[in-house]
Amino acid sequence: MNIELVAYSMVHEYLLGRLPSAQTYDDRIIAQKVGYITKSLGIHYGKNVDFFWHKRGPYSRVLTSMLFKIENNKEEIIEDTKNLRIKGPILPKLDMIKSLIDNRPASCPEVFWLEILASLLFLMKDPSNLNKLNIDELLIKKKPFLELHRQSVLIAKNSLQNYV
């Protein structure tokens, strides 16, 4: 099996407690946001996994392709990963990312929380966004549906300040 598929699957499972899925739109959004968050904080799955801004935040065509390969080869992925463990210098990074993900407010659905984290990271890393203090307002302007989760956006922004 492709090492990039195995690596991404193991990281996703470590962070969320389940293998990635491409079955639903929300599953694909979740997988995309996990991919972006981990890549932007130093965990890479391959040289071609690049992200651009999409209506639901950071998006990678290569990662979408990987997700469908994982979905279509789920049994093989399970077999390939069952005797492998994540170890070494990647663990502290993953634990830090896991703590960001686990900081999700109970009122915020997982798909929105991951979208908020990934989108804020993307906007914070964009050099054209000079005023990082108002990055939450920029996110809500780009994604008005997140107005309902304004408090979650502020929590995520504060959580990410230490990492960007």
Could you characterize the architecture of this molecule?
The protein has helices spanning 3-16, 25-40, 61-72, 74-81, 90-102, 110-125, 135-142, 150-160, and strands at 52-54, 57-59. The chain has 164 residues and is mainly α. The longest helix has 16 residues, at 25-40. Helix 1 crosses helix 5 (90-102), helix 2 runs parallel beside helix 6 (110-125) and helix 6 (110-125) packs across helix 7. It contains 8 helices and 2 strands, in the order ααββαααααα. It starts with a helix and ends with a helix.
What count of helical segments does DSSP give?
8
| Secondary-structure element order, N to C | HHEEHHHHHH
Largest sheet: 2 strands, antiparallel
Strand content: under 5%
Global shape? globular
Overall average pLDDT: 92
Overall tally of domains = 1
Query: Which bin fits the share of residues in helices?
Result: 55-70%
Radius of gyration over alpha carbons?
15 Å
- Given helix and strand content, the structural type is mainly alpha
Poorly predicted ranges: none
Oligomer: single chain
